[in-house]
Amino acid sequence: MAAKRYLNLIGGKWTPSLTGKFFENRNPADGRELIGAFPASEKADVDAAVAAAQKAYESWRLVPAPKRGEILFRTAELLTERKEEYARQMTQEMGKVLAETRGDVQEAIDTAYYMAGEGRRLFGQTTPSELRNKFAMSVRMPIGVVGMIAPWNFPMAIPSWKIFPAIVCGNTCVFKPAEDTPVSTLNLVQTLIDAGLPPGVVNLVFGFGPDAGAPIVEHPGVRAISFTGSSEVGRIVGQTAAGLFKPCSLEMGGKNAMIVLEDANLDLALDGALWGAFGTTGQRCTATSRILVHTSIAKTFAKGLVARAEKLKVGNGANLKVQMGPQINQQQIETSERYCAIALAEGAKLLTGGKRLTAGDLKHGTFFAPTVFANVEPHMRIAREEVFGPVVSLLTFETFEEAVQIANSIEYGLSTALYTRNVNRAFEAIRDLEAGITYINAPTIGAEVHLPFGGVKQTGNGHREGGTGAIDFYTSWKSVYVDYSDKLQRAQIDNGE
């Protein structure tokens, strides 16, 4: 039976790519399972999508924001009805266990409800004028066509972070989903259409980064860029956008540290470490990839973490008994293998895992064992570079100040965590850890949609997704002055007399 062939969405119509080429979407838990074939789009397809978005923008920007919000509210209702169906399809194409893909869909639902409310907010400011009979205010204006490029690890949640605030603000979108997870993003956009989104407001162009992503960034009709992915690609996207004077939101890598003080609730910290390190098979930008443990409890902690890691059931995420699914593809398996070899060569001690899993049905997928390294030093590559797999490093420290210094010593700054019963230390950590997110007595994963999401240093460029941070990116400020004095008034000049 031939695989289903999907099409691009351009101007509200499902449209074949002008290349006539397709790429396969397969189940990472079982590579024999072909999910579908998607267009391998190129620049001409992007040009058509941008033209459609530009045409739609002229009418969409004039739709009252509360009405735009109502479409998002209906989207949330439909996503709720379809949650189980979409979660199972996401597990099939991405590999996450069902509990996690249900959470991914729920995050899109939560974002839709939140941004629907923004349709009746989008607050500006009013302020007194310095002159008589003059009114002053600021209002938010849409930007225009926004180009969006998303990763595969949260194939519905992250697109919802980008698309929902953009359209409630009056923008239109050209979106390139990750080539590993196109179905989930298509499901999200189809739900928007079913909720009443007009044609051309959101356009989907499937394909690979150099062929379809780069033309979106470079297109003169695209007024802003939102990118989530690696720091290496993000640097190229940011440099290109800067040369074209386009606002650009970058959300990139992380090497997130969890600090465990000697007074911590050890069982709670171990539970958090297991979830933070191996949730989503370690394939989160917020994954707990470094655990800094006080020397007095280091051996006990390591023993407990290894015992928990070795009990994790790894397999096809569609099985409700499975706790950790596959890595997304062969390339990610090779990256995990390479970093394990580097860690051993640098002197780290492998406590468990460190290899691909191929027993039984696992041989048909891309599975990697939950991996724990000890005797890791801050200068080692395994402690500084993002693996994006189920690989965690244990480091030790003597003092709280040393732990903070180690946590801050890398080029990333996304998420951090501290386990302690000392409220003073907790607030010092909130103040001193160089990161966009800090958790106290919780792991480095678990962000909520109504707060800003993003990092510092090479994790991001200052913009935020989620909450009002997203609204700030997808709007531009316009200052408005209404003079009803019926005479010429010169600001600063007449005011100074």
Describe this structure in words.
With 497 residues, the chain is α/β, with parallel strands linked by helices. Helix content is 37%, strand content 22%. It is built from 13 helices and 23 strands. It has helices at residues 43-60, 65-94, 98-118, 157-168, 182-194, 209-218, 231-243, 266-278, 298-311, 330-346, 400-407, 423-432, 467-473; strands at residues 8-10, 13-15, 22-27, 30-39, 125-128, 134-142, 145-149, 172-176, 202-204, 224-228, 248-251, 256-260, 288-294, 349-352, 356-357, 367-368, 371-374, 391-397, 412-413, 415-419, 437-440, 456-457, 475-483. A 7-stranded mixed β-sheet has the order 14-17-18-13-12-20-21, with helices on both faces. Strands 9-8-7-10-11 form a 5-stranded parallel β-sheet, with helices on both faces. The protein has a 3-stranded antiparallel β-sheet with strand order 5-6-23. Helix 1 (43-60) crosses helix 6, helix 3 packs parallel to helix 4 (157-168) and helix 8 (266-278) packs across helix 9 (298-311). The longest helix has 30 residues, at 65-94.
Task: Compile the SSE list and pairings.
Elements: E1 8-10, E2 13-15, E3 22-27, E4 30-39, H1 43-60, H2 65-94, H3 98-118, E5 125-128, E6 134-142, E7 145-149, H4 157-168, E8 172-176, H5 182-194, E9 202-204, H6 209-218, E10 224-228, H7 231-243, E11 248-251, E12 256-260, H8 266-278, E13 288-294, H9 298-311, H10 330-346, E14 349-352, E15 356-357, E16 367-368, E17 371-374, E18 391-397, H11 400-407, E19 412-413, E20 415-419, H12 423-432, E21 437-440, E22 456-457, H13 467-473, E23 475-483
Parallel strand pairs: 7-8, 7-10, 8-9, 10-11, 12-13, 12-20, 13-18, 17-18, 20-21
Antiparallel strand pairs: 1-2, 3-4, 5-6, 6-23, 14-17, 15-16, 19-22
